Amino acid sequence: MRIIIIGAGEVGYQIAKKLSEENQEVVLIDKDPAKIRRINENLDVQSFLGSGTSPRLLRDAGIEGAELLVAATDSDEVNLIACLFARNLNRYMVKVARVRNREYLQEKSLFSEDLLGVDLLINTRAMMVDTILGLMEVPGASEVLDFVGGKVKLVSFLISNTSPLAGKKLSDLKICEGHLLVGAIVRGHNILIPSGKDTIQPHDLVYLVLQKEEINDALARFDLTTPPMENIIIVGAGETGMALAKALDERRLNVKIIDRDREKCKNLANILNRVIVIRGDGTDRELLQEENAGDMDLLIATTGDEESNVLISLLAKDLGTRRTITRVSKMSYLPVVSAIGLDTVINPRMEAVRAILQYIRRGRIISVAPLREEQAEAIEAEALETSDIVNTPLYKVPFPPGAILGAIIRGDEIIIPQGNTIVLPHDRLIIFAMQQVAKKLEELLTVKVEYF
Residue 376's closest CA among 384, 385, 368? Predict the structure, then answer.
């Protein structure tokens, strides 16, 4: 697949990195020489120095034969114009645009096939808010990912020394009761797609596949439940913090928001009903103490400065805040900040990468979620009628090592598969796979007649 990426910032770079590791044909365009040098020094992709709104440069990049365009610069206008040109240069390619301006997002007709023909709009602010609200629905979770429209959730938990799961072999657990499966284990910097022989250890990050209706019962069985989050502090009144405050304002929770900018605080005080707006420095330990951060269920650090966010969360944990959510934009920081004891780290660029990946995978891929440090993926796919995975007992299906079928969704029924389980056409599948076997998995899921 030939993929053209416009913008070599963190989003463009990470998408290009992931695709180049899978031997996809990637072309990256950026007008910043320093970013192009970084690409040339670190990635095996083709690069062009220039503007993604140049029809000549798009032709030089091979847009006529490309299957996907990702416009991911920091400029909405550049992204939209690039999609407009792409629509006229290659009507059959998929176009993805990163858009941040709320005014643009309210004008849905702009992105129709008759005008820009954009197939997917990415708004990281909205994605971040949805991610945080999802985490609040499952208190104590490090990550919550939705599949099948939210009917099935992938929830990760850090295993403590006292957890009933610690030291247990998967084959010894009645883990399949109540539609629950261990799909992946993160141990240190390594990720494991487990089998029945594997043992859960303290400090593992365990990914569980759960049916939405049975989350509370399943977590109670394994002593993973925590009290609901009712007392919340948000630090940072930028676009994400403001949108989150508005969403929480309607939920009748005890919410405070802190920002040092006078105008932002005045604006928020005028539009929020229940949320308490505080002007101050979120990195000030005394201010956090005055606002009873130690008694809060959750602190969310969403300022535009990731170093400040990390410091704020560490201060909150030291004061006694039960949980923290920390916004960190640089991908390279993620392993470090996770290692120093922060509860949950969210990355706006990772949200964008997840949304884009579904357009890259072959077969009927519905969604793709990279797991910690992108070594593995959770994939939601439809079982196609002539693919190798259907109408055959699973023990006969040539699943590549490093991949596991975690769940089958058939109508309203959720099936935790066993060796003699048979996948039927149009079943929804939740699959866990190491990154290096993604291509083999695609071949297993692909309808053969499409490529004759």
Answer: 368
